[in-house]
Design a protein that fits this description.
Elements lengths: L41 H6 L4 E5 L2 E4 L4 E4 L2 H4 L8 H13 L11 H13 L6 E5 L2 H18 L7 E5 L8 H6 L3 H5 L8 E4 L23 H9 L4 E6 L15 H12 L2 E5 L13 H5 L5 E4 L11 E5 L1 H9 L18 H16 L7 H12 L7 E7 L2 E6 L8 H13 L1 E2 L1 E3 L3 E4 L7 H17 L2
Parallel strand pairs: 3-13, 5-6, 5-7, 7-8, 8-9
Antiparallel strand pairs: 1-2, 2-3, 4-10, 9-10, 11-12, 12-15, 14-15
The chain binds 3-[O-phosphonopyridoxyl]--amino-benzoic acid (PXG).
């Protein structure tokens, strides 16, 4: 059923009624060859491009001048909506003041200020912040922290990393190794050794659950199976998305994450939450850890950290992990041999501070429950449309899953998403036949009506 996170892909399908200023007289697109597009069906896209040229608030503008409602906050990242002048101004000012400065053995105030600001909103005790350049880098960083922690703690045998089926943790070798989406792994031969996966939690018996499914907490016991198989003394960490995004919005059953936390604690295994999508307000709380009331040992973030505008990630580590690696290390040399040229770079940190200012002044990390309820009700109003087999939601994340066409998984949702694009909304088709939604958090009820209205008509139209 799951053909891969980007099986559609989002920009791939033909869109006959969209003007194509880039098309040559022969119909082949011109000037599009050099950019090898990421996670894109390049040949199909370039034969029939769909171009976005501007954005403001909840809307993109296409190259033929149409306004298109952004139902996906870009790629789950533009939480405060598009075109935020305060972020642009902060970046501009920063580039004219201190464009770049290294963070290796030298410092600059902006990165420290941003880390302090993040520490203030972090779940209790997770206030040691390591900056990266993306969600993929955040995940690889977190995995390396876990390994370094156990070594520093005298438990160097703990080298095994556990992910989960259908998990997405970016595209670094660490991330794809613990990741569980077949297409993202299969093309690349041998990945990291010493990795295993928990079973996923998507179950047909829970179709049309509103929020967390009632059944399935026991799926967390799968970790006990892996502990019995490999021995707890070989396992460094478990990494999961608290709510899976790329695999089509998979919401954890009630009690599942609590159980996973308790099994990890019992066996001395670190729990990493990959909150690249869920952090910064997506569930109506600053972090998913807040929503679920669970304290992981490490949280990975990116995307909403800078409202999507600057490539930046941040890893929130517990004091215990930080102090074990840093404070306890002997001598005064480098304690953690890890970092990126752009870790906390002035421009990205300035973008992050301005973003956090907006989140706080507009209360975007705490969306009102009525808005979230309205979103849930609107999505579930689609359940009786033809070919709808599931509707899932939590916070301002949602998905409508369609029955797959025989032998052509992914094609129906892709056609619906192209239809939505033509009729004025961006809805992401991913994970086979799932239509995923993660709108900017500034959305209002009228945007929900517009989005769901467009989706409803498209689902009804596409056979
Ligand atoms: N972890 C999670 C949970 C993610 O969703 C990454 C890591 C990697 O982040 P970077 O910044 O390296 O891309 C992601 C990214 C989609 C989609 O539609 C999801 C992502 C990216 C693009 C599209 O499912 N997630």
């Amino acid at each position: 059923m799951f053909t891969g996170v980007f099986a559609d892909t989002k920009l791939a399908a033909s869109s006959a009624n969209v003007a194509q200023p880039h098309a040559s007289p022969s119909g082949a697109a011109a000037g599009l060859d050099a950019f090898w597009m990421p996670f894109t069906a390049n040949k199909r896209f370039k034969a029939s491009p769909r171009m976005l040229v501007a954005a403001e608030g909840m809307y993109f503008t296409t190259d033929d001048g149409r306004k298109v409602l952004d139902g996906t906050a870009g790629l789950w990242c533009v939480n405060a909506g598009h075109g935020r002048r305060a972020i642009a101004d902060a970046v501009h000012r920063q580039l004219l003041t201190l464009d770049y400065a290294p963070a290796f053995q030298l410092g600059h105030p902006v990165a420290f200020e941003f880390a302090n600001r993040l520490a203030e909103i972090a779940p209790a005790g997770l206030d040691r912040i390591f900056f990266t350049g993306s969600g993929s880098e955040s995940n690889d960083t977190a995995l390396k922290m876990a390994l370094a922690y156990h070594r520093a703690n005298g438990q160097g045998s703990r080298t095994r990393l556990i992910g989960r089926e259908l998990g997405y943790h970016g595209v670094g070798f660490g991330g794809i190794s613990v990741g569980g989406i077949g297409n993202n792994r299969r093309g690349f031969g041998a990945l990291l050794p010493g990795v295993d996966h928990l079973r996923h939690t998507l179950e047909r018996r829970s179709a049309f659950s509103r929020g967390q499914p009632e059944l399935g907490a026991e799926l967390a016991d799968d970790l006990e199976r892996l502990v019995a198989l490999h021995g707890a003394e070989t396992i460094a960490a478990v990494v999961v998305e608290p709510v899976s995004g790329s695999a089509g919005v998979i919401v954890p059953p009630k009690g599942y994450l609590e159980r996973l936390r308790s099994i990890c604690t019992q066996h001395g295994i670190l729990l990493i939450f990959d909150e690249v999508i869920t952090a910064f307000g997506r569930l109506g709380t600053p972090f998913a850890a807040d929503y679920f009331g669970i304290r992981p040992d490490i949280i990975c973030t990116a995307k909403g950290l800078t409202n999507g505008v600057a490539p930046m990630g941040a890893v929130f580590a517990s004091r215990a992990i930080h102090d074990t690696i840093v404070q306890k290390s002997s001598g005064d040399g480098i304690e953690f041999f890890h970092g990126y040229t752009y870790s906390g770079s002035p421009m990205t940190a300035a973008a992050g501070i301005a973003t956090l200012d907006i989140y706080q002044s507009e209360n975007l990390l705490h969306r009102p429950p009525e808005l979230i309820q309205y979103f849930e009700d609107a999505l579930h109003s689609l359940r009786d449309l033809p070919r709808v087999v599931d509707v899932r939601n939590l916070g301002l994340m949602g998905a409508v899953e369609l029955e797959s066409r025989a032998g052509k998984p992914g094609s129906r949702a892709m056609d619906v998403s192209v239809d939505c694009f033509k009729s004025g909304a961006i809805v992401r088709s991913n994970a086979g036949d799932v239509l995923a939604l993660s709108p900017p958090l500034i959305l209002e009820k009228k945007h929900i009506d517009e989005l769901v209205g467009i989706m409803s008509a498209a689902i009804a139209r596409v056979a």
